[in-house]
Amino acid sequence: MIAGTLMAQTYAPGAYPEREISNRALRLKILLPDARKGFYRGTRFDWAGVIGSLEYNGHSYFGPFFEKFDPSVEDVAIGDPIVAGINSAASGPVDEFIGADGAALGYSEAKPGETFCKIGVGSLRKADNKPYSSYTNYTIVSGGKRDIKAGPGWIRFSQELHCGSGYAYRYVKTIRLMKDEPMMMIEHTLVNTGKKAIATRVYDHNFFSIDHQNTGPAIVMSFPFTPRPTQDMGGLGQIRGKELVFPKELRGSDTFYSEFTGFGTTADDYQIRIENTNSGAGVLIRGALPLASLGVWAVRTVVAPEPYVDINVPTGSQFQWAYTYSFYTDKTRSSQP
Fold this sequence. Notes:
Layout lengths: L17 E5 L3 E6 L18 E7 L2 E4 L5 E2 L6 E2 L5 E2 L7 E6 L17 E4 L3 E4 L14 E3 L2 E7 L2 E11 L2 E11 L5 E10 L5 E10 L11 E4 L5 E2 L8 E3 L2 E3 L10 E6 L9 E6 L4 E7 L5 E7 L2 E12 L4 E12 L8
Parallel strand pairs: 5-7
Antiparallel strand pairs: 1-2, 2-3, 3-4, 6-7, 8-16, 9-10, 10-11, 12-13, 13-14, 14-15, 15-26, 16-25, 17-20, 17-22, 18-21, 19-20, 21-24, 22-23, 23-26, 24-25
């Protein structure tokens, strides 16, 4: 149970509950959910499965993208240093559940003082009639019942929650490493135990910081389709066939963001490849569901594809989806599709 305003984070190295999982290829540090001592305690991202680091074949893929934490910052202040507030100070691939209307589950129906659902976080109190914002640190009324189980090469998180207003769920996230392979699966199951249908979206905010090198010409992101930006990329990004490239190194306050169309209606287009051509490290992400939307955010310390999928769970039913990450280097590239 979590109540009231959470304690301020300090982000001192090694100060957080964590668990390491590994196989012969990958080694991961998982930062565990904890209302008082956890690395991530905001109300934007799912608390379960935050990856503090991932190493493969001498290369690193994840790590905090921000250089300073300041609870007075609403989202992220891009400069020198990069400063993150409580709701955006995350690491690795993290999920955010947010509807196509831009609001959390049940927010539009709730009156000020009533509760709504932020899946993976808890039951949150609506403060006023302002539009929902991912960057507002809402009061957590209840974090529900959480459980963690782990074994060789896997860790499973579960959360059971009654949110109020007829919404309730059981949510399970499992991070699983394939035996002796540089492959990670993130599996999700959402069971609707409430009286109302759950209709929302979820996106995987992939905070990639491959070998801790700055975003620039060495970083190449590719897709099975030709991405079409929906806004001006301001000279910071460029489409080259089926690739998104960064023609110059991002510096200082440079911030890239664009949404993209061009994908189809099947899961075949949920394939995102990111390579650091300087270090030779890369990853291919596959999703089990069709893309509903796609954004890419990048600053000098991180490049972050944000693929969305639709979630629809009638009452009494369950919904499952998964992401697969295949990691490779120059020496293992030939084995990747």
